[in-house]
Amino acid sequence: MSDDLNLNAQSRDDLGKGASRRLRRLAGLVPGILYGGRKKPVNITVSHKELVKKLEDEAFFSRIVTLVVDGKAEDVILKDLQRHPAKAQLVHVDFMRVSKTKLLNTNVPLHFINAESNPNVKLHGGQVHENLMQLEISCLPGDLPEFIEVDLGELDMGQVLHISDLELPKGVSSVALAQGEDYDQPVAVINKPRGTSEDEDEESTEETSENENDSE
């Protein structure tokens, strides 16, 4: 495991809002919790400075992290991260234990590629609208991708790309699609630019229809 995906933590017994504020203000620590699996939840602290540095790597949000708590390593994923609404400060962090033999559900980022080379964008002024920035997937920890690529290179003008259109890595499935076709959400679309001749024709048709109705 890369050192970039390792993080040291310490267990803690001092709980409550007051204790958490003291940890953040005086000790430069972020309170958090480790849970999941057959073990009991453990309240932990991690270095604010170290955690901020780890978060600079996008992989930290979606890959298996080795969390070393009081010298003992556990495989975990980052499940929740709370930030201060007004300060550049991390307030709380949640980690969930994972098993190499059990499926896990987690969100991974979507990386949109080839939008600029799409003729509908490059030559005809189409505008890309991204509906989803991340996708909830189910897979074994060993199959967990860092991200999922969404190729927009051949998307037609006005065509909506759905989750079912994505090429997911082997061993990876969509949580939404597992619930049925009604959950096949739109991922991206290339919209026609405003003020095209088609738009003007539609507006002209609407105005003519309104004038005819008024004359009646």
* Relevant CATH superfamily of the largest domain: Ribosomal Protein L25, Chain P
> What structural category do the secondary elements indicate?
alpha+beta
Radius of gyration in whole Å, from Cα?
24 Å
Helix count equals 4
Beginning-to-end CA distance, first to last residue? 76 Å
CATH class label of the largest domain: Mainly Beta
Question: What do we call the CATH topology of the largest domain?
Answer: Ribosomal Protein L25, Chain P
Contiguous low-pLDDT stretches (5 residues minimum) are: 199-205
Helix and strand sequence:
EHEEHEEEEHEEEEEEH
Overall tally of structural domains: 2
Mean pLDDT: 86
Query: Which strand-content bin applies to the residues?
Result: 35-45%
How would you sum up the global shape? elongated
> Spatial order of the strands in the main sheet?
1-3-2-6-5-4
Helix content: 10-25%
CATH architecture of the largest domain: Beta Barrel
Q: Tell me the total number of β-strands.
A: 13
**What profile does the largest beta sheet have?**
6 strands, mixed, barrel
